[in-house]
């Protein structure tokens, strides 16, 4: 997978996802700056940032990966 750049979702067991565990992983990734969160034209840099949602607001999650060799 890493050579092709493809990201595959894991096959879920019959129990489904553990939302508490997934939330902890997402919060840790945000705090470690492993992805960018963009809301409209604003980069969200803190978990305390308030976002006013509306139908035209675009939200983007951009996964950051280190370049080879650096």
Question: Helices and strands in order, then pairings?
Answer:
Layout lengths: L18 H13 L3 E5 L2 E3 L14 E5 L7
Antiparallel strand pairs: 1-2, 1-3
Please explain how this structure is put together.
With 70 residues, the chain is of the alpha+beta class. The protein has a domain of 37 residues. It has a three-stranded antiparallel sheet, with no helix packed on it. A hairpin with a 2-residue loop joins strand 1 and strand 2. The radius of gyration is 15 Å and the shape is extended. The two termini are 20 Å apart. The mean pLDDT is 85.
Total strand count, please? 3
Strand order of the largest sheet: 2-1-3
Taking pLDDT < 50 over at least 5 consecutive residues as the criterion, the unreliable ranges are none
Output the radius of gyration.
15 Å
Question: Alpha-carbon distance between the termini?
Answer: 20 Å
Summed up, the helix count is 1
Percent range of helical residues: 10-25%
Could you report the average pLDDT, rounded to the nearest whole number?
85
Assembly of the depicted chains? single chain
Class from helix and strand fractions: alpha+beta
Q: What general outline do the C-alpha atoms trace? A: extended
Largest sheet: 3 strands, antiparallel
H/E series = HEEE
- Beta-strand residue fraction: 15-25%
């Amino acid at each position: 997978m890493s050579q092709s750049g493809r990201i595959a979702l894991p096959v879920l067991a019959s129990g489904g996802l553990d939302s508490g565990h997934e939330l902890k992983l997402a919060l840790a990734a945000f705090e470690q700056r492993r992805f960018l969160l963009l809301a409209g034209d604003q980069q969200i840099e803190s978990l305390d940032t308030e976002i006013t949602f509306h139908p035209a607001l675009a939200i983007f999650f951009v996964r950051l990966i280190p370049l080879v060799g650096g």
